[in-house]
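Q: Structure tokens for this one, please.
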Amino acid sequence: MKRIVSVSIGSSKRDSKAVVRVLGEEFSLERMGTDGDIQKAIAIIKELDGKVAAFGMGGIDLYLWGGRRRYILREAKQIARAPQVTPIVDGSGLKNTLERKAIETLAEEDPSMFRGKKVLLTCGVDRFGMAAALQETGAEVLYGDLMFALGVPIPLYSLKALERVAAVFAPIVVQFPFHWLYPIGDKQEEAPDRKKYERFYAWADVIAGDYHQIRKYMPDDLSGKIIITNTITPKDVEFLRKRRVRELITTTPDLEGRSFGTNVMEALLVAILNRPVSAITPQDYLRLLDEIGFKPRREVLGA
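A: Here is the predicted structure, written as tokens:
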């Protein structure tokens, strides 16, 4: 059995394991959180290097994307350089393939889900495949990058505007300590001012993006809303149910009661392909996803 380990700087309370059979082969999927401790994450990776099939780098992105340009996060580079033998991925390869494909699949199955609707995407620079796909559905999309990453209450309503903002801010932002941009460790469990962006949650028919960013300013009542995200646990499902979310959709499949992050899924695909990450193309991922039959998970939570 091949072992896939996601070493996350997120909360250890979300740790989990699952054994899955994919294309006739068994894989052990594990998530190990370090509660915001980057050096602990590096130590775990070094200890397991060469002993597992692939690493996922969780709780932090290696890259931010703005159109065709890619920006590397300074702190993430430390983690990415830790293994010398085992390949490590951050999920960005799947964010630009699986998540794009998931939106396209949903739009094909039910065009009314997006066409003419209002979509809040919390951050587009870390899920540019989803951002681009949403723009093509006929929806009105609000990109919340400035709000959810930098705390600046300025919505962006076009992909071109997002690319212009990324070109200005991304080269600077990637040098920041990551916790300035994204909740890590116990901060993922905290609830700041839920009124701060309440009007944007109320405006949206569909709320998409990273779960921790969605939850960070989530108001108490999301009656009738659709949430599109990933990395969901059973506890998260109940949290959303209490807030009257109508439907939960995850871009990664349901495995043993939870949806793992894109970094875990990408690590799984890397282990199956058994090739250097640098030699794997988006077409390789798409072909393998079709072969496996991964589809978005959909769960109706309320009326």
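A few notes: The longest strand covers residues 25-33. Residues 62 and 76 are 5 Å apart (CA to CA).
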